[in-house]
Design goal:
The complex is a heterodimer of chains A (113) and B (116). Chain A is mainly β and 113 residues long. Helices cover 0% and strands 46% of the residues of chain A. In chain B, strands 2, 4, 5, 6, 9, 10 and 11 form a 7-stranded mixed β-sheet that branches. In chain B, strands 1-3-8-7 form a 4-stranded antiparallel β-sheet, with no helix packed on it. Classes of the chains: A mainly beta (113), B mainly beta (116).
C-alpha cells in the first residue's frame, strides 16, 4: 500500500487560510487521494478526495500536483472548529480494491483565536 | 439524523470477559468496516463486510470476530479481552468500493472500551 508523509503538527490563526501538505511519491495510477479529519473524541470525517484534478467542496479544496506525488488540503478560512487531526490517505481503487483506508499518523492542526 | 450509530459509547469489561459492541446504519450501505484506534494512534482496520461477505485483515487477532445479521447492523465480538484491547472501536460504512468511483466512508462516533 502506498504511503503518505505529513507534518506531525501545524498551527494556524483563526480566519486565515491553512495549507496542509502531503507527500505521496509512490502513488500509483489507480490511487485516489483522500482526506479525512478527526475532531477530538469523534470518529473520522470525510473531507475531500481526488484523482488528478483539483477539487473543491463546501469544506475544503484539494490541490494535486501535476505528477501526483504530492497534494495540499486547503482550508480557506480556519475556524476553531477546524482543530483536528487531518489524515491524507491513498486509496487503491484498482481491481481487487476493498475501499479500506490505511491511516498514517496525520497532521494535528491547532487553530489559535 | 444520525447515520452511523454505535452503542454503547463507553464500555467497561473485565479481563477475559466476552464483550460485544454494536453498530447500526441508516444509509443502506453495502459495506461496513470495523477499525481499532488505540490511544494517540491512527485507526487500524480490523475487518469489513461487503453485504454478507466477511473479509478479515491478515493481522487481526482471532480474538476478534464480527457478525452482520442484516444490512443495517454489524457487531464486533471480543471473545477474551486483554488489557491491550483497550481502545476506541470505530464502525464505518461505505456505499460500495467500485473501481469506477471512490466512495467515501462514514464513521460512527466510536465505542471506547476499557478493560479492567
Amino acid at each position: 500500500d502506498a504511503k503518505t508523509t505529513q507534518p506531525n503538527s501545524m498551527e494556524s490563526n483563526e480566519e486565515e487560510p491553512v495549507h496542509l501538505p502531503c507527500n505521496h511519491s509512490t502513488i500509483s495510477g489507480t490511487d485516489y487521494i483522500h482526506w479525512y479529519r478527526q475532531l477530538p473524541s469523534q470518529g473520522p470525517e470525510y473531507v475531500i478526495h481526488g484523482l488528478t484534478s483539483n477539487v473543491n467542496n463546501r469544506m475544503a479544496s484539494l490541490a494535486i500536483a501535476e505528477d501526483r506525488k504530492s497534494s495540499t488540503l486547503i482550508l480557506h478560512r480556519a475556524t476553531l472548529r477546524d482543530a483536528a487531526v487531518y489524515y491524507c490517505i491513498l486509496r487503491d481503487d484498482g481491481s481487487g480494491n476493498t475501499g479500506k483506508l490505511i491511516f498514517g499518523q496525520g497532521t494535528t492542526l491547532q487553530v489559535k483565536p | 439524523d444520525a447515520m452511523v450509530i454505535q452503542n454503547p459509547r463507553y464500555q467497561v469489561t473485565q479481563f477475559g470477559k466476552p464483550v460485544t459492541l454494536s453498530c447500526s446504519q441508516t444509509l443502506n450501505h453495502n459495506v461496513m468496516y470495523w477499525y481499532q484506534q488505540k490511544s494517540s494512534q491512527a485507526p487500524k482496520l480490523l475487518f469489513h463486510y461487503y453485504d454478507k461477505d466477511f473479509n478479515n485483515e491478515a493481522d487481526t487477532p482471532d480474538n476478534f470476530q464480527s457478525r452482520r445479521p442484516n444490512t443495517s447492523f454489524c457487531f464486533l465480538d471480543i471473545r477474551s479481552p486483554g488489557l491491550g484491547d483497550a481502545a476506541m472501536y470505530l464502525c464505518a460504512t461505505s456505499r460500495d468500493f467500485s473501481a469506477e468511483r471512490s466512495y467515501e466512508q462514514y464513521f460512527g462516533p466510536g465505542t471506547r472500551l476499557t478493560v479492567t
